[in-house]
Amino acid sequence: MTDDQLLRYSRHILLDELDVAGQERIMGAHALVIGAGGLGSPVALYLGTAGVGRITLVDHDTVDLTNLQRQIAHSLARVGQPKAHSAQQAIAAINPEPLVRVVAQRADAALLDELVPAADVVIDCCDNFAARHMINAACVRHAKPLVSGAAIRFDGQISVYDTRNAASPCYACVFPPADDFQETLCATMGVFAPLVGIIGTMQAAEALKLLGGVGSSLAGRLQMLDARSMEWNEVRVPRNRDCPVCASRQLS
User: Which of 226, 68, 54 is nearest to 156 (CA)?
Assistant: First the structure.
């Protein structure tokens, strides 16, 4: 670690739980961030400022004026640019050290099977149910930890799905893909601007804890926030032994 890096990351290094060794683990890690919007913005910025060595940003969308109410990685000057490129610029403006790869296309199964195996952690910042299930399936196939968050109106949720642990559920254990799910989008339902910052920042924290080897993750715990009253609730969620996605990976 260089003198500049020791200075830049000094507040992490001062933490006994991280120290130099933990910061070096973060600097040597690769995070895959899917979605560079409301949730992806704080995730990308905090992973970048923390010095994650490689960050892959996947997003097919472009920056729109309506995004600027909450998507803090973007600016008025970058309206019309691909969101992944805009987020890359936002990271570089704060910390030029991370190697940021931009994939300005929609994530599908083939792309995920290309990108997920190379990542140390996957952060799901997308905004639709089908994509979350596709990301989860790829993480189960390749045994990668998944940090998943969601936010709509005043309601947010976050958990970690890490099937490397036999007791930990996958996303499909908690939200079965066969369920009749009514998709809700912020374009029609609205979203409280700071809510995506709260959930996205927590996603970044969970990802950095996993990469730095610090504490315990939210695996097996689904946390839900009602921002109207700023009240958190937590539900313990076990592995579903009949899950159509991860059952074959369970240990007897």
Answer: 226
Q: Average of pLDDT values for 29-50? A: 98
Provide the H-helix boundaries in 95-244.
Answer: 109-115, 129-141, 171-174, 186-189, 193-212
CATH number at residue 85: 3.40.50.720
Phi–psi pair at 116, nearest 5 degrees: -60, -45
User: What percent of the chain is predicted at pLDDT more than 70?
Assistant: 94
Cβ–Cβ contacts within 10 Å for residue 71, how many? 25
Mean pLDDT score of the chain: 94
Structural contact between residues 63 and 83, judged by C-beta atoms closer than 8 angstroms: yes
Residue pair 225/195 in contact by the 8 Å Cβ criterion: yes
Q: Is the pLDDT of residue 251 over 60?
A: no
The Cα 145–Cα 165 span in angstroms is 10
Residue type, 46: Y
What's the CA gap between 156 and 134, in Å, rounded? 20
- Taking only the tens place, the pLDDT of each residue in 68-113 is 999 999 999 999 999 999 999 999 999 999 999 999 999 999 999 9
Q: Pairing relation of β-strands 221-226 and 231-236?
A: antiparallel
- Domain span holding position 98: 3-249
Domains contained in the chain, number: 1
- Give 218-242 pLDDT, tens digit per residue: 999 999 999 999 999 999 999 999 9
* 3-class secondary structure, 195: helix
